[in-house]
């Protein structure tokens, strides 16, 4: 969500804003009063991150707060999609990639072929949200089968094709692009690897999808839960029936898994060897310490604290 604005959160984050890092490596460190690891030192250098547009709102907030704590650090975040981020990770352009789907076996093999290994970090839960225009007064819910009937190429073309009694108006489709992990997840649980409607507008920028659905009474789209929450005054979310009755995405139904099958984890992947560098280590540590709180701030659902703690131990082990 590129235009999300974050309030100053220093008082909420408290002592977590002060991170320690060892000296050495390509990045330089500026030692604080006690100078020991995890004892209040700042880090500096340049770090580039890319990947999922769904994960972007969380990481944007983390980066803003991290740079307040470490003014000598320059961290940039792109959102080329989960697949685009993994491609850059494979090519060695970045050492950290955000994703709204798990990394694929072939992507792991390509990374290994370059002599690298990665660690998967879960950041939060998301509920992939199906939305229609606010003026749409006929859709009260959709089953997974109806979603497939609509979105698969050659399927339903009008709302009347989906359910009897709905208008004979052509459906206008808006979807994340094929490099998006959100697209991959929808493809897995709804399309089942069939061709998406060829008339759909595809974009890696979820704001384009929001604007498209907002501007057309007959439009339907899908994207991450946080993008729906930010635009809920202009969009209508559709409860999805995964077999146990229609369920609307909320923090509670996403965390419990009741919002099935469209609930999913969100990830960052880091190259293991990069964690030995002070800046990367400090950033990843800060990410895990603050992702839960910042995920809630932008509309996602945090993990149990013990999950973040376990992953922090994993990162410490890579040092």
Keywords:
six-stranded mixed sheet; single chain; disordered N terminus; alpha/beta; D-Maltodextrin-Binding Protein, domain 2; 36% helix; 319 residues
Distance between the termini: 32 Å
Return the domain count. 2
Q: How much is the average pLDDT? A: 87
**Strand count, sense and closure of the main sheet?**
6 strands, mixed
Query: Which bin fits the share of residues in helices?
Result: 25-40%
Structural class: alpha/beta
What general form does the structure show?
A: elongated
- The low-pLDDT segments are 1-39
Biased composition (Low complexity): 32-45
Domain PBP: 38-289
Protein name: Phosphate-binding protein
Main location: membrane
Overview of the structural elements:
With 319 residues, the chain is α/β, with parallel strands linked by helices. The protein has twelve helices and 16 strands. It has a six-stranded mixed beta sheet. α2 crosses α11 and α11 packs antiparallel against α12 (305-317). It is elongated, with a radius of gyration of 21 Å. The two termini are 32 Å apart. The model is unreliable at 1-39 (pLDDT under 50).
Topology at a glance:
Blueprint: H1 10-13, E1 29-30, E2 42-43, E3 45-51, H2 56-69, E4 73-77, H3 82-90, E5 96-99, H4 105-113, E6 118-127, E7 129-133, E8 142-143, H5 144-151, H6 159-162, E9 172-176, H7 181-191, E10 201-203, H8 206-214, E11 219-223, H9 225-230, E12 235-237, E13 240-241, E14 246-247, H10 251-256, E15 263-271, H11 278-298, E16 301-302, H12 305-317
Parallel strand pairs: 3-4, 3-5, 8-13, 9-10, 9-11
Antiparallel strand pairs: 1-2, 5-15, 6-15, 6-16, 7-11, 7-12, 13-14
